[in-house]
Amino acid sequence: xxxxxxxxxxxxxxxxxxxxxxxxxxxxxxxxxxxxxxxxxxxxxxxxxxxxxxxxxxxxxxxxxxxxxxxxxxxxxxxxxxxxxxxxxxxxxxxxxxxxxxxxxxxxxxxxxxxxxxxxxxxxxxxxxxxxxxxxxxxxxxxxxxxxxxxxxxxxxxxxxxxxxxxxxxxxxxxxxxxxxxxxxxxxxxxxxxxxxxxxxxxxxxxxxxxxxxxxxxxxxxxxxxxxxxxxxxxxxxxxxxxxxxxxxxxxxxxxxxxxxxxxxxxxxxxxxxxxxxxxxxxxxxxxxxxxxxxxxxxxxxxxxxxxxxxxxxxxxxxxxxxxxxxxxxxxxxxxxxxxxxxxxxxxxxxxxxxxxxxxxxxxxxxxxxxxxxxxxxxxxxxxxx
Length: 386
Hints:
Layout: H1 6-14, H2 26-34, E1 40-48, E2 51-61, E3 67-73, E4 94-95, E5 98-100, H3 108-124, E6 132-138, H4 149-158, E7 165-168, E8 180-182, E9 184-185, E10 187-196, E11 200-201, H5 211-223, E12 238-245, E13 253-254, E14 257-266, H6 272-290, E15 293-302, E16 305-306, H7 311-324, E17 329-331, H8 339-342, E18 348-350, E19 364-366, H9 367-384
Parallel strand pairs: 3-6, 3-7, 7-18, 8-17
Antiparallel strand pairs: 1-2, 2-6, 4-5, 5-19, 9-16, 10-14, 10-15, 11-13, 12-14
Helix pairs in contact: 1-2, 1-3, 3-9, 5-6, 7-9
């Protein structure tokens, strides 16, 4: 039986310009490969106030356990200035063994590789596998993440479709293919701080309350010491200031307020509650010392988590050892992913191609890596069900 070509499949997916939240035909392209192999495909479109509708896909073959799910997203970030690309971002051009295109590595490449591996495995078993294999595919990972994976997972729970384990195909390789497996993620919380003072003439600073030195002191205190030294599984937590603004066009006027935004990526030494208390403590200290009025709001982007993977992790490590000679380093580096939602339903790990060009101009994947990824996924499926 002719094997499914991950290269051609990836080109078809790339040629659908599915910038969040647009589907652009990408789910139909994937369904056209899965349905003939016997996967029951269910389109799930979800809505919420003030957010765009999002199309998602759940596809499953098999009724019994063990149930292995592959999770991924087929939405992509905008291309930026297309004139800067070596090849048009949605043409999926292959040059010198490299496929160029938005989404090649983040993460249509993984979706194509897993689909090709799954279809070939299912066909080799004449559609009868020792368990269940499914796909959770969203179009909302790069966007608000409101009408995507979270709601698909709720639907899966309501319909008795929760898997035993899940593999997310995010690009986890840092330097060479297969060098990284993610077994958790740092948490993320963003703070917006406003310092209110009293506007005044720059020549009479004693008649006003300049908020800039107050905010500067606060930011300096927050950044002056490490948040922690890291843990066995996580590196040190980090605080990054992204804005410091007063919106003041006049050099002879001190402003009435100053604003700053900073983000904390935290490990298991902290929680959102402890970090909110940490920021509040410093605000109280600075306000007591320098005056003014300090207020802040926060948005919790993700909780920190460390997965408790089952047989899937050892199965993946064996497949990587066979393909690359190494098992892949377990780590928790990087930003957030939909694994932060999945971990509340089942054990989850992440593995995919190189992440060097994600979200960049000339995003790409090496054809050799795409083929290697397909072989690794095929070995994972084969051994998981054996």
